[in-house]
Design goal:
The protein is of the alpha/beta class. Helix content is about 45%, strand content about 20%. The chain has a domain of about 110 residues: 2-Layer Sandwich (Nucleotidyltransferase, domain 5), CATH 3.30.420. The strands form two sheets. The chain has a five-stranded mixed beta sheet, with helices on both faces. The chain is globular and about 55 Å long.
Length: about 280
């Protein structure tokens, strides 16, 4: 059995293939970001999924593409956790950016971007992926991501910058007491995923001028920091992966046009295209 997974900070999508690369089942776990989570939490989140662990001795190969897997130490940590559970498996752990390239580019030159709980981009030359800057995560970077917008909403709410009708809905939708927010941000695990949950609130008010402005500013920052520095011709396709890009496609295209660019395609989840890549 082969397990293939696309893992973000919020959730990870898994597909199992048999020896003939035919699909056996699909399942989902909580996010498995080794740059944020402890070894125990990573372990617990995997074994909590019975669909996966009941097959632990049958699994011979694991290909995991995940957020937080772009540097050696967290990658080695997650690999160690997998090897402790799937004792017969050969394990490969790569960053989620590579999964996005495999899913979107069709093997051709392109710029591929992620806008989910976190954000990132790369230039793919048809053989290798190149990044203009290393990703430093949700505190310093992740422009236009779910956690980026979640942070902005919380700040605007507390500074009374949020329109009154939206603020009332915001405070009835979430527990916005200072102690609760600080507990989740500074004491609990996965603060980036916690912030990302607030971004879902924007879907309901995406037609409002306030939410439109927030999205436009965030997307503009992403283009300026994560796309324009590659200095590639406008003819090169630009692809986006992730729920933020998917649900706010019209505003994303609007911002792209301001820079004389066009978003070629958007995938909410790359897992299906990723499977096709491995089946080849």
């Amino acid at each position: 059995m082969i397990l293939i997974a696309d893992g973000g900070s919020t959730k990870a999508d898994w597909i199992a293939l048999d020896d003939n690369k035919k699909e056996l089942f699909r399942t989902r776990t909580k996010g498995l970001n080794p740059a944020i989570l402890s070894q125990k939490e990573l372990y617990d989140r995997i074994i909590d999924n019975f669909e996966i662990t009941k097959q632990e001795e049958k699994v011979e190969e694991i290909y995991f593409y995940g957020a937080g897997c772009g540097t050696p130490e967290p990658t080695a940590l997650l690999k160690k956790v997998f090897e402790s559970i799937f004792v017969n498996a050969k394990v490969a752990v790569e960053e989620d950016m590579l999964a996005a390239v495999y899913a979107a580019s069709a093997g051709k030159e392109s710029i591929v971007c992620i806008l989910g709980t976190g954000s990132n981009s790369c230039y793919y030359d048809g053989e290798k992926a190149h990044q203009n800057v290393a990703s430093l995560g949700y505190i310093l970077m992740d422009e236009a991501s779910g956690n980026y917008f979640g942070k902005r909403l919380i700040i605007d709410y507390f500074y009374n910058k949020m329109p009154q009708n939206i603020a009332k809905k915001f405070e009835t939708t979430y527990d916005v007491t200072p102690d609760e927010i600080k507990l989740n941000l500074y004491q609990k695990e996965s603060p980036n995923a916690y912030l990302g949950n607030f971004a879902e609130f924007m879907f309901e008010f995406k037609e409002s001028d306030y939410i439109h402005q927030i999205l436009e500013e965030g997307f503009s920052t992403f283009f300026e920091y994560r796309i324009l520095p590659y200095k590639k011709p406008m003819s090169i396709p630009i692809y986006f992966i992730g729920s933020i890009a998917y649900f706010f496609e019209s505003i994303l295209q609007e911002v792209a046009e301001k820079y004389g660019l066009k978003v070629t395609g958007i995938l909410r989840r790359p897992i299906d295209n990723l499977i096709a890549y491995h089946q080849k």
